[in-house]
Amino acid sequence: MSSSSPQKIIEATMRLVETTESSHISLNANGGNSVLVICEPLKEIEYIEAMKALMLPSKYDIIELEKLLNQFVMENREDIELGFELLKGSIHQIFKAPQGEEGPDFLGLILKAISESIQIGKIPVLINAGSLYGSGISNIHIMENELIMKAPLPLIILYPAIKVQEKLMYLGKRPASKYRCMIVD
């Protein structure tokens, strides 16, 4: 982990997405269009505070994943309860509908919020990524989505993780993908 302050890391991320050509991110992100800002899980609040203080609402749209998760649950309460009953062995399907199937979809709600940011010309920034834990949705599902890959603006994800021998561990527990993104830490 870097010894830089959250403020310095956020400022560096902003310079990266505001001043470099998107091809620079794409080259360093294996063709992707995402920047993963790695923060120690216990420092996530400091990073969020720095983002909210530094990232102007005229350029950035901070998308709070825990609020989207709450919205998803409130709007789909009956379907979720039924899903837990029917899909005990495949709970992740409650949050990420299998390809080609219709139904409530948390991943779809996230992608819709990102799309809305891009449509109004703002760089989408996902925070509270710990809200994805247990949902079956990982960073790669978002970063490899066609919407993100072809977007005119990069996606920034504040990602609570630690590095263990160059391996990225989401919430310090589960291996996470570093593919399709540029890492800032």
Describe what is shown at a glance.
The chain is of the alpha/beta class and 185 residues long. It contains eight helices and seven strands.
Topology at a glance:
Blueprint: H1 6-19, H2 22-28, E1 34-39, H3 44-54, E2 60-64, H4 65-75, H5 77-86, H6 106-119, E3 123-127, H7 139-143, H8 146-150, E4 155-164, E5 167-170, E6 174-175, E7 181-184
Parallel strand pairs: 1-4, 1-7, 2-3, 3-4
Antiparallel strand pairs: 4-5, 5-6
Helix pairs in contact: 1-3
Would you mind describing this structure in some detail?
- It is a single chain.
- With 185 residues, this protein is an alpha/beta fold.
- The protein is 42% helix and 19% strand.
- The protein is built from eight helices and seven strands, in the order ααβαβαααβααββββ.
- Strands 1, 2, 3, 4, 5, 6 and 7 form a seven-stranded mixed sheet that branches.
- β4 and β5 (167-170) form a beta hairpin.
- α1 packs across α3.
- It is globular, with a radius of gyration of 16 Å.
- It starts with 5 loop residues before the first helix and ends with a strand.
User: Roughly how many Å is the radius of gyration?
Assistant: 16 Å
Segments where pLDDT lies below 50 for 5+ residues?
none
Mean pLDDT: 88
H/E series: HHEHEHHHEHHEEEE
| Strand residue content | 15-25%
| Count of individual beta strands | 7
